[in-house]
Every structure is written in C-alpha cells, then in structure tokens.
Queue: 2 jobs
Job 1
Amino acid sequence: MTVIRAILTDIEGTTSSISFVKDVLFPYAHKRLPAFVETHGDTPEVQHWLHEAAKEAGIVEAPRQEVIELLLGWIDQDRKSTALKALQGMIWKDGYEGGDFRAHMYPEVGAKLHAWRADGLHLYIYSSGSVPAQKLFFRYSEAGDLSPLLSGYFDTETGPKREQASYEKIAAAIGEQPGHILFLSDIVEELDAARAAGLRTGWLLRAPLAIPDMPRHPAYADFDAIVL
Ligand SMILES: CSCCC(=O)C(=O)COP(=O)(O)O
Ligand SMILES: [Mg+2]
C-alpha cells in the first residue's frame, strides 16, 4: 500500500454539512447580494466577477440589475460558477468577521485534521467555494481556527471538480506523486475523476446515508473511520 503524504479534502458534505452551506451561507449571500453589488460594484474585483458572470450567461451587455437577478437565480440553483463563488466569498466575509455564524465542522473533523498534521501529513482543500471563502471557512470554524493546519487551497479556478485534469494540476501544484495523495469527497463523480488522475480516494457517506455493500470507492461514515 502506498504511503499517504497529503490529504486533499472537499468541504460541503465531507468536512461540513450540506445544510450549513444551503441554509445559512446561501440565504445570507442571497439577502445581501443586491446591496453588496450596489456598494462595491465599482471596485475592479467586483466588476471583474460581474463581467465573468455575465459572460458565462452570454449577457455581457445586460444592465447590472439583470446580472444581479441572474446571480440570485444561480444561488437558488446552487450553480458552481466560479464568478458567483468569488462574489459569495466577499459577502460571507462580513458574516464571519461580524460573528453572524461560524462554519460547521462535523464533530471529529477538527481533531482529525490536528492528528493528521501532527503525523506529518500535508492538508489541502479543494472546493467549489472560492479560495478566499475557503480561508474564511476554516479560520472561523466551529472547531476553532483550523487555517494553520492547512498547506493550501484549490477552487474551480484550477478546474472543474469532476475533471481528471483538475486533480493532475493539483498533484503537480502540491508536488507529490498522485498516488501519495488521498482525496476525500461525498460526490462519487469527483472521486472518479481523482482516481483517474491516480489519486487515492475516500468516499464520505455521512449519516443518514448508508455505506453500500460494494462501494465504488473506499467508503467511510466519518473521518475517524479512515485508515491510512
Ligand atoms: C467554502 S465556501 C462554501 C461552500 C460552497 O459554496 C460550495 O459550493 C461547496 O462546494 P464543495 O465543492 O465543497 O462541495
Ligand atoms: Mg462536496
């Protein structure tokens, strides 16, 4: 069995509950997005992402209000748009820093990340959430500030999570052979793509999900069940 030297983990459904993202983060961004665009819409970074969103939808000449409506619809659909995720991250910053919420972590995750790091493993995140949003997520988590444990973050600017090439790029960026990296996710298509790139995989099936008799990937109910 190859030695695992690095762990790359997804967030939603893996370290943290889907309901925290859908019931806390998304409504927070939905409520504040129109005012945020109103107040910050002329800054270069926000302008850039509004333009990218409009381009993605094929409405580059559209008035700003139409782009806002588009983004609100995308939040409702949980569209994994890089532009939307970048804007959401900027909006969530206020929520974390103002103490409106802390990021949910499943109960064993914080201790397990500490243990893996103490064993010398390098820990990385790969999520559809933007890198700045990921940094906030682990800094302001229910398990305390976990950001010092993390060696790096990847988002969909590296590539889509269901494509083999994204994992090849991440392995190269980490500087490890793919076989020494364990990717953890709740989404089987992401795990298939990671395996095709040569990474080891772990499928998180959090309760009430049951582990099938013959899972397509090594399957675990939580991080404590993972044997390296
Ligand atoms: C870290 S930002 C909040 C999560 C988010 O917006 C998201 O889309 C999570 O997707 P994941 O790839 O972590 O399943
Ligand atoms: Mg996920």
Note: Residues 20-97 form a domain with the Transcription Termination Factor Rho, Rna-binding Domain; Chain A, Domain 1 fold (CATH 1.10.720.60).
Job 2
Amino acid sequence: MVGTARAPAAGTVLNALATGTGSAFAIDEDVRATVELDRTGEVTGEVAGDPDADTTLVETCVRRVVAEHGDGEGGHVRTESEVPMAGGLKSSSAAANATVLATLDALDADMPREAACLLGVEAAREAGVTVTGAFDDASASMLGGVTVTDNTTDTLLDRREVAWDVAVYVPDERAYSADADVSRCERVAPTARVVEELALDGRYGEAMTVNGFAFCAALGFDTEPMVAALPDVAGVSLSGTGPSYVAVGETDAVRAARDRWSDYEGTTWLTTTRTDGARTG
Ligand SMILES: Nc1ncnc2c1ncn2[C@@H]1O[C@H](COP(=O)(O)OP(=O)(O)OP(=O)(O)O)[C@@H](O)[C@H]1O
Ligand SMILES: O=C(O)C1=C[C@@H](O)[C@@H](O)[C@H](O)C1
C-alpha cells in the first residue's frame, strides 16, 4: 500500500496574522510525499536531506486520513521538497497537502479537494506549526491559483487563476511561522483590511506591495528588497512570516528584480504561478 502525491509551495498576497483573513498564490515548486502503509499501527516520518526535521505535521496528516478512511494502519511518510522549510514559502502547507493526498492514494480512497485541504489544516493546528491554521496557504497549494480565505472560519472567499512570472529571494536565515510576533502583526490590521479589499477586487499586485511594506515593518524585515524590485514589477512582498520575498509581473520586470536580488546573501530563482494545485502521483 504505497501512495504518492505532490503539492506546490506558495507566495503571499496578504498575511493573515493581522486580521485572520489571508491570501496566497501557488508557485511552480513542489513538495512530494510518499506514504507506505502497513499493519504496525505506528506512523513514522522522514524529510529527505534533513534528518533533524520535525515530522510531527506529516505524521499527524497520515494518522488523520487513516482515522477517517483506513482501518488502523500505520506506516512511513517521506517528503522531498524543492523549497526550504521556514522560508516563508509555505512548505508546511504543501507538505500537509501532499501527505494527505498520498495517504488517500495508498488507501485507494478519495475525498473532495477542499475537504482534504481542511484535514491538513487541522493537522497543522494539532502539530502547532501555524498561527491561524493557514487555510490561505493550504488552499492556494491544494487548488492552485490565488485564493483569499477567512482563516477564523476556514472559508474560501475567492479563488482566481493568474499567470505571472515570479522571482523568489530566500535569505540564509529561517523564520518559523509559529514563532512570529502576532501582537505586532495585529497592529497593522487597518492596513491588512485595505490589502484584503484590493485582493478581493483582483488588484493582487498592489495588494502584495502594501502587504509587504506593512509586514516587513511589523515583523522587522528589511524593505530594501522590495524597493529594489519596484516600480517595474506588478507586486512584491515579504512572503508569509519571512524571510523570503516574492515579486510577480511581466517576465522582464521579474527578471530584473531577480538580478538585483542576486547581489544579496542567499538564494534567488525564477518560477511561475501554478493553476492546477496538488495532485496524486
Ligand atoms: N517539506 C516538509 N516536510 C515535512 N514537514 C514539513 C515540511 N515543511 C514544513 N514541515 C513541517 O512544518 C513545520 C513548520 O515549517 P515551516 O515553518 O516551514 O512552515 P510554514 O509555516 O509553512 O513556513 P514557511 O512558509 O516559512 O515554509 C516544520 O517544523 C515541519 O514540522
Ligand atoms: O501560520 C499562519 O497562520 C500563517 C503563516 C503565514 O504563512 C501567513 O502568510 C499566513 O497568512 C498565515
């Protein structure tokens, strides 16, 4: 009983830590999960290339799917990722989605995409790796495109498909979302509400840039990578709780942003948005 699945990472339009409403878009970088089920009843986990990684989240995902669709099986889950953990690129949401779908695949079971996504969100809450549940990140990864969600009620407010080039800058440091200073984020709630209006209006680029300046200030990240990408890109933001930055727009503008970011310490790359979301196999 082996199942495999993959789910894309994501970038931020609106960080939900201020008001509970957030928005994110899927990017073409995957987390893959392989789940092997057995009769031991015990679940173990492994992250490829990172023997010290905390595997509680993905093990919780396997247990929750087995509890709903299985018959007491145990097993092993292994993830492989094209994005770093704690970079701001939603690796935990992608890992949860991929693990849920891989476990369903191993059980030869099925469930609607949004319900599968919510199962991963509940697992993330149980594992303590999220502040709001991050349904914004999880829904963008599971469904593809740009989503806007209310994470206080796990409601999908909007989903649209976009086609942007994307530049990513990942500084060398790491920032776990669960460690973010939520009370400082709550101070920028009035700005977050403006970002929400822009996002629900489809003005994603402007929304991202306003979000980026507000959350760099709240969380103490440098605004220089944002200024370096402007005014040519359609939008640029700190992604999630940092430390990564994402810029979106036309190819030439996004390439120019990436070239400027290459002078900084860390890693940069170019990718695109994804509209198809997570998939089995
Ligand atoms: N690729 C992965 N495989 C397995 N578990 C993962 C993976 N990525 C994240 N996790 C789990 O989620 C926890 C939180 O990770 P992380 O801070 O990266 O999540 P995040 O909130 O999505 O942040 P970011 O957006 O910065 O990636 C990790 O400690 C780990 O337990
Ligand atoms: O842990 C969380 O609840 C979140 C973390 C970040 O990715 C945010 O961008 C997201 O909106 C919510």
Note: The chain has a mean pLDDT of 97.
